[in-house]
Specification:
The N and C termini lie far apart (97 Å). It contains seven helices and 17 strands. The strands form three sheets. Strands 1, 2, 3, 4, 5, 6, 7, 8 and 9 form a nine-stranded antiparallel β-sheet that branches. The protein has a four-stranded antiparallel β-sheet with strand order 13-10-17-16. Strands 12-11-14-15 form a four-stranded antiparallel β-sheet, with no helix packed on it. With 407 residues, the chain is of the alpha+beta class. Strand 2 (53-61) and strand 3 form a beta hairpin. The chain folds into three domains: 35-144, C2 domain (Immunoglobulin-like, Sandwich); 155-300, C2 domain (Immunoglobulin-like, Sandwich); 328-406, no CATH class.
Length: 407
């Protein structure tokens, strides 16, 4: 029995060593392969029968895998609205999409990515072949982040891009116009290994990743089709390791200055404060070319909806906070009206004489255009402490303390 136990322990250790060596070999093989591009998949929805199901979608590209959340639904249209990024390596161009239910496998689809155009967002409806008939998955797929495609190295590349933009505008008969963006680089970022993502409604492109530097130089040029001239270009810089945004800006298409290099200061996700880092900024050069008549006609039609935008649910805490704020403002307004009323009822001679003098001076200098300035009174009274230019109370208290100390 003891010999059999020792043999079993030895066999388990030997099997463990072989499994680890196989994993190391596979990892070293993957590290030797070069990354070709980044595949961005926006999983929007799926059409299926009305049966109650717990659906999950999985994507596989070579050894790269990802899966969506499980959605419970009994409607013919199931929505996910999730975003995934998969690395594409050499000789790995087959994207496998699998649809699963709680009970098991429903169907699969194979898509050859080598046949798709790079640096362009494709709207695809994948036919799922399996046990359930007429199942389709709607995705937005983009192959971008290619380091050697659409790079800008010389002035001739910029001029050629401008000529291509003009040719596209002449041959175009359906879209409103075209947008060309040259992403030169960024400085002062708070993280290394960053890439830049550009999004215009449902079109999403990104640069390659610049490793081990806080001042990346991407030198990439991108082209977007403009369907609505009133839309906004969203530019964000993402840290590849932490998968979080380092900085973001929004540029309305109306405010673009054609052919001018501009440094844009990066902000955080709230767009109220500066992003972290040493004066983080990004250098861009943009050009827009659009048809006036088609843009005016497009303004009458409904705007193109963002397929990844979700309906914001009502936050009870935020709603209660706004109600309390409205109560405070209403109470302050009523107290102010009562104070004004008591100032003119001659209950106190000092307050009434002071109010009368202020009223006479106000009527003497008041003009109609000064009326909106009265709305600044509540903002001045309830201003945050950090936005005070001169804190008179603190200054007065400081002088009193200094005078009392020396006296």
């Amino acid at each position: 029995m003891l010999c059999w136990y020792n043999f079993k322990v030895f066999f388990n250790r030997f099997q463990f060593i072989l499994s680890n060596s196989a994993k190391n070999i596979s990892q070293t093989r993957m590290s030797r392969k070069n990354k070709v591009a980044t595949v961005t998949i926006a999983l929007i929805d799926a059409t299926i029968d009305d049966k109650l199901r717990f659906l999950q979608c999985r994507f596989r590209l070579g050894v790269e895998k990802c899966k969506s959340k499980v959605v419970k639904s009994n409607s013919p249209k199931v929505k996910w609205q999730e975003l995934f990024n998969l690395n594409m390596y050499e000789d790995q161009f087959m994207l496998e999409t699998t649809l699963l239910d709680k009970d098991g496998f429903l169907g699969r689809n194979l898509l050859d990515l080598s046949a798709l155009e790079k640096e362009k967002t494709h709207q695809l409806k994948l036919d799922i072949e399996g046990d359930v008939a007429d199942v389709k998955i709607f995705i937005l797929l983009t192959i971008s982040g290619t380091p050697l495609l659409n790079t800008v190295t010389e002035l001739e590349d910029v001029n050629n891009a401008q000529k291509i933009l003009e040719v596209k505008e002449e041959n175009n008969s359906t879209e409103v116009g075209w947008l060309s963006v040259i992403v030169f680089g960024a400085k002062g970022l708070c993280a290394q290994d960053c890439y830049c993502v550009l999004k215009l409604i449902n079109n999403r492109l990104q640069t390659h990743t610049e490793y081990k530097t806080c001042d990346p130089s991407w030198m990439k040029i991108f082209t977007f089709e403009i369907t609505d001239i009133t839309s906004t270009l969203e530019i964000s810089i993402v840290d590849e390791k932490k998968v979080e945004e380092v900085g973001k800006i929004y540029v309305p298409l109306f405010r673009i200055k054609n052919g001018v290099k501009v440094w844009y200061a990066l902000k955080d996700h709230t767009q109220r404060e500066r992003a972290k880092g040493n004066n983080p900024r990004i250098l861009l050069e943009m050009r827009t070319s659009w048809h006036l008549t088609r843009a005016a006609i497009r303004m009458v039609n409904p705007k193109e909806t963002d397929l990844l935008a979700t309906n914001v649910k009502v936050d009870r805490r935020l709603f209660a906070r706004n109600i309390n704020r409205a109560r405070v403002v209403t109470k302050w307004t009523l107290d102010t009206l009562k104070l004004i009323k008591t100032c003119f009822e001659w209950e106190s001679r000092k307050s009434n004489v002071t109010a009368l003098i202020i009223w006479i001076i106000f009527c003497y200098f008041f003009k109609i255009w000064m009326l909106p300035l009265l709305l600044l009174i509540p903002f001045i009274k309830y201003r945050p402490q950090k936005y005070v230019l001169i804190n008179f109370y603190a200054t007065l208290l400081f002088h009193l303390l200094v005078s009392s100390r020396f006296s």
